[in-house]
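Need residues for this backbone.
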């Protein structure tokens, strides 16, 4: 089995300091978290940024630039910038950060109902973002919230906008998205092209069990406060501890952890 690639998603768009003091908000905090999580065993960092005044999700290019530059100089992590829409749904707000040419960026290939908001990704917007990623040499992390989004991704391949081998991230257990069950996971893993790689973002209490399935099935893991702020019921987590837990579990189960450079090889990053 391939070595396990661990992605850390330390910040996301939702948790604030009042929810957990461990969520990194400022560029300095995000960079420091990246350094600690790399030492713990992560090889990819999934980046969101926040407005400093009120911790709300931000589209600010300067913030993305500070985080990217800091992570590049302080770590060997693969930087994966989110193009998610919570900070601003418009294409112009979501594309600018791709000029930073991170090695990866998230690309959600369909729309989904978040609990209080439509996460809108029109066919046109998806194509535009895919084209921008291709132009900047960025590998998409194809974020799937439901089975149909796999087919949408395969259409992008047919249209020449995304080049295989594909990397998918299955977002499971979010209200409005595919439920986090092992049956659903098996179906998703069997529905993608055989040469693809995949990871799981299990939301809330689904994070640990779904990542455990991924370790055993040959997939890859994503952990972090973006997906769940708890280590276990009633006990707040920090990002580094969540990474360490997956490292320990994976080694106990006989699967070694990929370094960032080994992850680059597995993901065929150029
Ligand atoms: Zn994200």
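Answer:
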């Amino acid at each position: 089995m391939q070595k396990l690639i661990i992605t850390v998603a330390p910040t996301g768009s939702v948790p604030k300091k009042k929810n957990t003091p461990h969520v990194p908000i400022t560029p300095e905090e995000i960079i420091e978290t990246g350094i600690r999580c790399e030492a713990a065993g992560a090889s990819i960092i999934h980046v969101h940024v926040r407005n400093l005044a009120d911790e709300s999700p931000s589209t600010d290019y300067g913030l993305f630039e500070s985080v990217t530059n800091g992570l590049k100089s302080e770590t060997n992590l693969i930087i994966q910038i989110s193009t998610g829409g919570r900070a601003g749904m418009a294409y112009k707000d979501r594309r600018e950060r791709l000029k930073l040419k991170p090695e990866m960026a998230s690309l959600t290939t369909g729309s989904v109902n978040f609990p209080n908001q439509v996460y809108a990704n029109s066919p046109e917007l998806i194509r535009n973002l895919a084209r921008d990623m291709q132009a900047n040499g960025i590998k998409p992390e194809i974020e799937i919230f439901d089975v149909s989004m796999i087919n949408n991704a395969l259409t992008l391949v047919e249209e020449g906008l995304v080049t295989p081998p594909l990397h998918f991230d299955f977002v499971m257990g979010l209200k409005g998205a595919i439920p986090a069950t092992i049956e659903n996971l098996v179906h998703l893993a069997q529905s993608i092209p055989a040469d693809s790689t995949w990871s799981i973002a299990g939301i809330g209490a689904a994070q640990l069990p779904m990542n455990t399935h991924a370790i055993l099935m040959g997939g890859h893991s994503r952990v972090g406060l973006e997906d769940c702020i708890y280590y276990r019921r009633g006990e707040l987590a920090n990002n580094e501890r969540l990474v360490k837990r997956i490292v320990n579990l994976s080694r106990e189960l006989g699967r070694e952890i990929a370094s960032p450079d080994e992850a680059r090889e597995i993901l065929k990053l150029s």
